[in-house]
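User: what does the whole thing look like in 3D?
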Amino acid sequence: MPIPSTGSKYTRFHRTRCQTCSLSALCLPLALGAQDMDQFNAIIRRRAPLKKGEALFCQGNSFSSVFAVRSGSLKQVTLDQNGEEQVTHFYLPSELIGLDSISEQIHPGYVIALERTSVCEIPFNHLDSLAEHIPQLRLQLFRSMSKEMGDDRRMMRLLSRKVPDERLASFFINLAMRFQRCGYSPCSFRLPMARNDIGNYLGLAVETISRILGRFQQQQLMAIQGREVHILDFEALNTLAETQGCQLDQARTRTSSDASA
Amino acid sequence: MPIPSTGSKYTRFHRTRCQTCSLSALCLPLALGAQDMDQFNAIIRRRAPLKKGEALFCQGNSFSSVFAVRSGSLKQVTLDQNGEEQVTHFYLPSELIGLDSISEQIHPGYVIALERTSVCEIPFNHLDSLAEHIPQLRLQLFRSMSKEMGDDRRMMRLLSRKVPDERLASFFINLAMRFQRCGYSPCSFRLPMARNDIGNYLGLAVETISRILGRFQQQQLMAIQGREVHILDFEALNTLAETQGCQLDQARTRTSSDASA
DNA sequence: CGGCTTCTTGATCTCGATCAATCAGCGTGG
DNA sequence: CCACGCTGATTGATCGAGATCAAGAAGCCG
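Assistant: Here's the predicted 3D structure for the full assembly of 522 residues, as structure tokens:
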């Protein structure tokens, strides 16, 4: 561990700047000029990383900031009044948390780290006033929200029309694309969430998840042991997922060794 | 037919102003001052009403405007590549259409009038520049999008965890609240959509919808004939729907008038 | 190493999709 | 104005996929 000169063990997080963040091209500051980026950087608050299982905030907490995932991953869980919990979202690096809370000013669910995770806090009132003066930022904010709405629609289609195999295929293709987007290999990664969470999220029993995964392995679509995932036949999985318009940038499955792009 | 003095048969629609619109308190201009309202009113384009079955736009059309429903109702339908269609949304008066298209700049589905329907067109680039100078409008836009995201989450919960009876109950409660919001009776209304659309939207077969409706009538929860709906026991239906935080403003079914927390 | 959670595998059973047929509503045109 | 024909709605009967129940295996943590 490098020893920071100024004291606090979190100094290095406070030091982190959007300008040097590897995700800045994917995150909100996307397409911001140097000067605007400075302004944006100024309103960000860095936080000590969350431990696995720790909550970023709780259901019912009042909303004041959105958060950008810097590293790690989180899940959003909503408790209904019978105490049933529903996993409604997973968040990966560069993605924004809390956009769904602006309307009610209350967080509609828990957001919990699935592993050691760090996030940037972006106070919403500051973000809003910055959006007033930086059209690029405003547009990007609209885009982010709009994109999330589109994703939600896809999820609704998945839940209401797809059979379990298709759901799980969609889920993995979606994860793969998002991992690729932030620089990881799309075909080899470690699942951040438990089978339980996947099942809950996809509206399926855990047992069903297990059985389908078994089937996927038999069919040589993927290799899984524990949480270690290797997608062997991306095309076939994608076809099964019926994911239209989904394109793997570089590392399309050549049924061979290129999986680690 | 009244004869408009200026010629075009659509003149009266062009005349309509936000200031005199009964929905202005629910729609985007919500909470705008008189002057801001003027500016907002200036960018709106009125349109000739759509006939039943007519498309406001088609899937794949490029996006340039959002629309506010003035009267009538519409459905959003997405066609996947196998030609399967999925109803993803219903739009009632005062609600905004097209917010999910900002990100891709392409409409992800057809939006089709369920009855004679009129809408206001709001060019998005104008809206965005107006949002730059009117913080209230910007915030309202963020809120609208955020609210839609929250609604989507609820829908996802409905689809992945609720049994058919609960889904249909939720659907009716939701409709009732939205009708009430724009001034109609929450407990007596005419369904704008076909059973088919409801089933598709809720991820259920039409036959299932029919059977459950039959059951609801037996249980005295509601009276339905054709598309004419009367909710007889709002509380019971609401309980069944497990709709938390849903409050009927005035006309709560007073089986016991205290249910309001 | 032991106790816990997480994951897998097997057996049963239920609920809703599907198929099939009939009925009702409604707009159209003779 | 009524008969026709279409689409949309209801009702019945059957079947299968996935939830559920139950048990065992494998990680994973202190």
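In plain terms: Residues 1-13, 249-261 of chain A have pLDDT under 50 and may be disordered. The CA atoms of residues 217 and 223 of chain A lie 6 Å apart.
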